[in-house]
């Protein structure tokens, strides 16, 4: 009888150990690709791993072709805006202030006008509104409008130094606020 109880005890202990092992393996939390950094910046959406913006040409203030590849090696905030977009015009001075906080070798603001105006018109508009200093970029060939996926203006994209898309923000933002500062400084390693 004692042998039978010992054998039953061993079988029960083995079954309990197997149950605990299986339960632990199947109930461990799933891993996901969510970034380790969380932001409180309203409407900022992290991009899927491997996402990139299309490599399209736009024009600089001299009318010469430019692209995001010209800014590789830096954290880049791409902002799409237009002169007719009131929230865009309100946030431009904040974007300028944000960009002036950081070393231009580490961080670049690329504010691309998606309207019909050329570089000279945009420069005159910025001067009239006393917005600057801000490098002029325009979507002269409409490649940004055709190839970037955005639902409205302003829309901003945060791009890593290696060109990976980190996230998107649709609508205006408080770019000089603590949430935006924390986001930028996280990716600058500050």
Please provide a written account of the structure.
The protein is an alpha+beta fold and 190 residues long. It folds into two domains: 1-28; 44-188, Glutaredoxin (3-Layer(aba) Sandwich). Helix content is 35%, strand content 18%. The chain has five helices and eight strands; from the N terminus they run H-E-E-E-E-H-E-H-E-H-E-E-H. The chain has helices at 2-27, 86-100, 119-128, 143-147, 178-188; strands spanning 44-46, 58-60, 65-66, 75-81, 107-113, 137-138, 155-159, 165-170. It has an eight-stranded mixed β-sheet with strand order 1-8-7-4-5-6-2-3, covered by helices on one side. The longest helix is centred in the N-terminal third of the chain and has 26 residues, at 2-27. The radius of gyration is 26 Å and the shape is globular.
């Amino acid at each position: 009888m004692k042998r039978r109880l010992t054998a039953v005890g061993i079988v029960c202990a083995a079954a309990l150990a197997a149950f605990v092992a299986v339960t632990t393996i199947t109930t461990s939390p799933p891993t996901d690709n969510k970034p380790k950094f969380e932001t409180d910046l309203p409407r900022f959406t992290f991009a899927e791993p491997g996402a990139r913006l299309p490599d399209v040409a736009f024009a600089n203030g001299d009318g010469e072709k430019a692209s995001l590849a010209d800014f590789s090696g830096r954290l880049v905030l791409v902002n799409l805006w237009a002169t007719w977009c009131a929230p865009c015009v309100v946030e431009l001075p904040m974007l300028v202030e944000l960009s002036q906080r950081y070393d231009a070798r580490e961080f670049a603001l690329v504010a691309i006008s998606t309207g019909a105006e050329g570089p000279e018109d945009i420069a005159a508009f910025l001067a009239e509104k006393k917005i600057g200093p801000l490098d002029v970029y325009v979507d002269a060939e409409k490649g940004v409008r055709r190839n970037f996926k955005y639902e409205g203006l302003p829309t901003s994209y945060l791009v890593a130094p290696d060109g990976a898309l980190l996230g998107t923000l649709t609508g205006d933002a408080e770019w000089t606020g603590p949430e935006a500062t924390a986001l930028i400084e996280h990716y600058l390693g500050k």
